[in-house]
Amino acid sequence: MSEVKVYSSPTCPHCRQAKKFLEDNNIPFEDYDVTSDQEKAEEMKKKSGAMSVPVLDIDGDIIVGFNESEIKQKLNL
Hints:
alpha+beta, globular
């Protein structure tokens, strides 16, 4: 099983889409709210080079934004 981390904010519609997609496909993930966790916000920025959300870390591969086809590919769905 892949290790999946989602860096998100509570008001972001694309973040909700990404998390719903993972839930619908029974993919466990850690969700980090970068609006309330400065350490995770810095970690996200370091990994992705971006301050936009969502950022998905799938086994060390970084996806910025909700890109369903790329997520499927990384998770072998």
